[in-house]
Amino acid sequence: MTDLPTSIDDTASRLLAHDYVPDRQLATVVYLALKLQRPLFLEGEPGTGKTEIARTLAAILNRPLIRLQCYEGLDLAGAAYEWNYGRQMMEIRLAEGTSTSRDALASELFSERFLTKRALLQSIDPANPVAPVLLIDELDRADEPFEAFLLEVLSDFQITIPELGTVKAITPPIVVLTSNRTREIHDAVKRRCLYHWVGFPDAARELEILKRRVPGAADALARQIVAFVQKLREIELYKLPGIAETIEWARALMELDTLVLDPEVIQHTLGVLLKYQDDIAKLQGSEAARLLEQVKRDVQAV
Ligand SMILES: Nc1ncnc2c1ncn2[C@@H]1O[C@H](COP(=O)(O)OP(=O)(O)OP(=O)(O)O)[C@@H](O)[C@H]1O
Ligand SMILES: [Mg+2]
């Protein structure tokens, strides 16, 4: 385990050292979340580095990452714990004909031995040698009632199991929640967290991200890629490309030995950036060429 960052600057430089390029606001909220031991709630556009921040924090702080991917129908059994009925039944069979009293058997059956621990419970297990980073990813995919399960974990870092009692973390885990805002998350959850909206980066930060994530990309090409993607985000599209798409596109273009953008290579690789036919159709014809002309002018002007 490594010590927590000592300042906003320290937070930023340690994120950078792991090739995560934060803006000042993100570095501030991360620093505060760690300092104040509060969960960090990140909402934002897809592919803008929300999940990655949890991975990076685990790496920086040298802690295990426990990930809870949310989905429709996720419940307590999938997220926190489940009694292992199979093993309990076996235990009952084994106890038959022995002198074990019913009370003793009942309390044995609902002991930790028969408990299957899922992500939430694992993250607060007092037996953990170090407190992990708990990533509750894409909370907006879970059903609303599920959020109620989280309240106890998020505010007190504990879970009450009716048959067993309350399990509480000795040292609180570092909690990161993400949402793509396909629906609003309940205020009660948000209130327990520090909130940050993760938007698209400006051109300078996106260029820095690209250089770090795709180190082989030539400077001229990287600048064009970033300028083009930034222009794309100004167009009315159904789904705007995120940072993940910019990185993918750079890799794809390098794979094709592209040195500078031209309308043809853009047309042929649009599927790396845009994932909806309507969006791709918008860029077909002269639109890509028109954007590229603007990009060339902008990049030259810098
Ligand atoms: N600030 C950043 N610095 C460096 N790399 C970044 C940054 N933001 C995003 N990335 C890169 O973009 C990729 C996608 O990020 P990530 O998976 O965290 O997005 P996300 O916001 O969780 O998206 P989704 O909502 O689709 O899950 C990461 O693997 C990382 O390589
Ligand atoms: Mg994600």
TrEMBL record:
Name the source's superkingdom: Bacteria
Q: Start and end of every AAA+ ATPase domain? A: 36-201
Q: Which CDD domains match?
A: AAA
Q: Name one Pfam family in it.
A: AAA_5
- State the name under which the record lists this protein: AAA family ATPase
Q: Native species of this protein?
A: Pseudaquabacterium terrae
